[in-house]
Design a protein that fits this description.
single chain, 8 helices, 25 strands, globular
Length: about 450
């Protein structure tokens, strides 16, 4: 790469986005078309795809093979794992997560969309909005993905009819509005033919909006988390105890959000002890200020008990600590999550023992109603849980911070991830009231 090209790429913004949709809606073909038509495919990659396509009796290259890399994926013609792809245009750099559409692998969509700023949800124009479409829209809403694109695919199979597109777009937008999704951009496409993916369609002159790539290149993206609540989860305590640094005690970690400055008063949670920042080391160099997502070492004026898993926050902006967590979770394990089950709760760098106190409801995706007291959650369920932890946790509301408002529930027996949790209100339109904790009958 030339120095000029490197400078151009460093000056462009970065967009993390995910693709989702039901089985055979054409996600992998769309991604392949994006990579191919934006000239982001190397010659040897394209040659390998063409060879694989010919061996399967296909005349034209199957662009889905650019992302379906697992042998099982190619044999079955479906996406199983999350496939990450990196590409760039002159206007923006992209990290793409191509997520599975099969209901069995919905859990992987949670993984791919958890860090995304935009989600492309594909719909087969022949089938319209189906249950898996609703499930993926609900997950995008729960994960507070700021931008959602509805790509109505396979328009070539419905004769490019505007009425078909309009009906699907209206139905999906109404559902998304109920979920509290702030923005939906609907685009009619044919990933196989390339209509409205990178180049405008010559057969859909009734559509005057952007192509998929044009929207991806121009959608506003804010990476400025420096104005958010400042949070530093402590990952490691540095004590060299050498002749050169006999009294050095630093608290290292990646700043999850916000900004820290030398002289700033901070509080350590969950203990609640306070001190002031006496120094900040960044890559071995002292600095006066540091911000997310930098990895730094903070030095404090006072020697206080701080260990891995503690959270350093500004004294005037500290979240409350509690042993009772109420959250919406996406259950991702094969074994069910049940009331009374003992789990581990991992929040940032802190892992504590916990018990599932209650599962008040499970979300019904058809009408967004809550099914009360299901007793358990099974794979791919979305529901509300109440968890009691052995030690206090400092959780932000997920709506305020995707980094410090999220957590994992883990099986203590084998380390399997059971559920991904989002603290606080679930959907943006809901106003859930926190119930008082009932500690009776629990160990801690």
């Amino acid at each position: 790469m030339s120095s000029t090209t490197a400078e151009q790429l460093s000056a462009t913004t970065l967009l993390r986005f995910a693709t989702a949709g039901s089985v055979d809606d054409g996600k992998s073909t769309l991604v392949g078309r994006l990579l191919h038509d934006s000239k982001s495919v190397l010659a040897d990659q394209l040659e390998a795809v063409e060879h694989a396509s010919r061996s399967r009796g296909q005349e034209a290259p199957d662009l889905a093979l650019l992302t379906d890399g697992l042998r099982a994926e190619r044999e079955q013609g479906i996406t199983i794992d999350v496939a990450y792809r990196y590409f760039a245009t002159a206007r923006r750099r992209f990290i793409l997560a191509d997520t599975p559409g099969h209901v069995q692998y919905t859990r992987n969509m949670v993984t791919g969309a958890s860090t995304a700023e935009l989600t492309v949800i594909l719909v087969d124009a022949r089938n319209g909005v189906v249950e898996q479409t609703r499930r993926h829209a609900a997950i995008a809403a729960l994960l507070r993905v700021p931008h959602v694109v509805l790509a109505v695919n396979k328009m070539d199979l419905v004769s490019y009819e505007e009425a078909v597109f309009a009906r699907i777009a209206e139905e999906f937008t109404a559902y998304a509005t109920e979920l509290g999704i702030p923005e939906v951009t609907a685009i009619p496409i044919s990933a196989l033919a390339g209509d409205n993916v990178v180049e405008p369609s010559a057969t859909m002159d009734w559509y005057g909006g952007p192509t998929v790539l044009e929207h991806l290149e121009t959608v506003p993206v804010s990476h400025d988390l420096t104005a958010c609540h400042a949070r530093l989860p402590v990952q490691y305590v540095i004590r060299p105890q050498t002749a050169e640094h006999p009294d050095y005690r630093g608290y290292a970690g990646q700043i999850a959000a916000g900004t820290f400055r030398v002289g700033q008063e901070v509080t350590v949670l969950p203990s609640g002890r306070t001190s002031r920042i006496s120094g900040i080391d960044l890559l071995g160099t002292p600095v006066d200020v540091a911000w997310t997502p930098q990895s730094v070492t903070l030095l404090l004026e006072d020697d206080i008990d701080i260990s891995r898993g503690d959270l350093i926050v500004p004294s005037g902006d500290a979240p409350s600590t509690s042993q009772d967590v109420e959250a919406t979770v996406c259950h991702v394990a094969d074994q069910p999550l049940t009331v009374g089950q003992r789990v581990l709760l991992k929040h940032t760098t802190r892992t504590v023992k916990a018990i599932v106190k209650d599962i008040p409801s499970r979300l019904t995706l058809d009408d967004l109603s809550q099914h009360p007291a299901p007793g358990r959650l099974v794979a791919n369920d979305i529901g509300t849980v109440k968890v009691r932890t052995a030690e206090p946790l400092a959780l932000d509301a997920y709506a305020d911070s995707r980094r410090t408002g999220s957590f994992l529930l883990i099986d203590p027996a084998d380390g399997t991830t059971l559920a991904a949790g989002m603290a606080g209100e679930s959907f943006a339109t809901e106003k859930a009231a926190a119930a008082p904790a009932d500690d009776e009958g629990w160990d801690f």
